[in-house]
Amino acid sequence: MLGEEQSLILQTAERIGLHVGREYWLRCAREKTEPKLLWNELLKAGLTSAGVPLEGSPATGLLEAVLVQEGLARAGIPLLTYLTTHLSREIILRYGSRTQFERFVLPTCRRGERISFCLTEAEAGSNTWRIRTYARRRDGGYLLSGQKTFITGARESEYLLVVARTKKYEEVERKRDGLSLFVMETRSGGVGFEPLNIELYSPETQYTVYFDEVELGVDNLIGVEGRGADYLFDGLNVERTLIAACSIGLGEYVLKRAVEYAGQRVVFDRPIGSYQGLQFRMARAKAYLEAARLLNYEAAELYGRGERGGGLANMAKLVASEASMEAFEIAMQTFGGNAYDLSTDIITFYPVIRLFKTAPITNELVLSYIGHHVLGLPKSY
Ligand SMILES: Cc1cc2nc3c(=O)[nH]c(=O)nc-3n(C[C@H](O)[C@H](O)[C@H](O)COP(=O)(O)OP(=O)(O)OC[C@H]3O[C@@H](n4cnc5c(N)ncnc54)[C@H](O)[C@@H]3O)c2cc1C
Questions:
Q1: How many angstroms does the Cα of residue 15 sit away from the middle of ligand 1?
Q2: For the segment 167-194, what is each residue's pLDDT rounded down to a tens digit?
Q3: Domain 4-114: what homologous superfamily?
Q4: Could you tell me which of 130, 51, 108, 63 has the C-alpha nearest to residue 303?
Q5: What is the pLDDT of residues 48-97, one digit of tens each?
Q6: Tens digit of each residue's pLDDT (9 = 90 or more) over 250-261
Q7: Domain locations in the chain?
Q8: Model pTM?
């Protein structure tokens, strides 16, 4: 299904992940230092521009970015800031101006800089329409105030893409009206950060981000004021495929570890991998991961052809998050008691693999989307 160049992207990303190594990733996580070596390797290989139409980039299209994300995850590296960067720049590529492309997208390609994606608010939760971060019009631009939470890599990223209201929820006729997207430098005056106490065994930190009358120009607004919902939902389909890619890659990684262990560990005079209670579950997990992978490639290609592809993107996210959880479960069972020893680095995958059933969108809301938009059933909320 993948062309030669696409296979090469997948292999290169996996090779970089293996070369930099899971050990390095965990060391950065323990020391809370940034995985600079990893970003440098991606930059050197030209993969920071995968999916962006640039001269000299390996290729263009969402599928290419999906392959980078999957390849890294196949080496045990869930690089979430790669995801937030690519989803944000997809929005800028589709709806932003040439100047925004040069100011915010090019540095991510050429210098490996990152964009953090700021949508979630504590009170609104999954109900995006209820966000309260507000950009007030004033001469020559906007003043942005409000707060976001769970924002991955916010302080470390060079740029922020922020979803805000330019008309309050109470003032709009349709709830999707009045949302606007802004992209800005992280170091803008009035932006503050508070790290959250979240353990993903990953160097990337989540933050509550505060915006206190942050001064923005009209050149920080993406597209047309009030039309942000349209742009956002395209971006969220991109996010679903990237998160599915990360799930699938991590699922493959833990399954590979389980298979290796099951081939070596002998109990009752036979390798435990010969016992069908384990073997069949590993085989099933492999089949589910492969199915999720093909579905995800199809979703990414559909988007690359200019379609929204919300149905397939949501299905891919659902199936991938469940398949990788299944792979994790059988890896836990295969390692027996050793799975609980942190040094075997198996149980350490639980928070991040499990995360993908909850973020960036919960699987309940994904099912609601499929139920309503694909099957045509009445909406529950
Ligand atoms: C580690 C981590 C990293 C994150 N990174 C980012 C980031 O970079 N940027 C960002 O913007 N956000 C980020 N998030 C936030 C994430 O997207 C949200 O946590 C997620 O969307 C769920 O929102 P919530 O936590 O408010 O859950 P809630 O909305 O409170 O939902 C709680 C439960 O209620 C269920 N529920 C709610 N409404 C319905 C309904 N109508 N029907 C059925 N069930 C329903 C949900 O499915 C869920 O099970 C991150 C979160 C985590 C944990």
A1: 33
A2: 999 999 999 999 999 999 999 999 999 9
A3: Acyl-CoA dehydrogenase/oxidase, N-terminal domain (1.10.540.10)
A4: 63
A5: 999 999 876 665 689 999 999 999 999 999 999 999 999 999 999 999 99
A6: 999 999 999 999
A7: 4-114, 117-226, 229-374
A8: 0.97
Architecture of domain 117-226: Beta Barrel (2.40)
Contacts for 110 with CB less than 8 Å, ≥ 6 apart: 48, 49
The finding on whether 361 has its CB within 6 A of some atom of ligand 1 is yes
CA-based R_g, the chain, Å: 21
Nearest CA to ligand 1 atom 50: 150
Distance between Cα 36 and ligand 1 center (Å) = 29
Ligand 1 mutation pick, 86, 126, 156, max ligand atoms within 8 A of CB: 126
Specify the DSSP class assigned to residue 218: G
- The answer to whether the CB of 5 falls within 8 A of the CB of 63 is no
CATH number of 229-374: 1.20.140.10
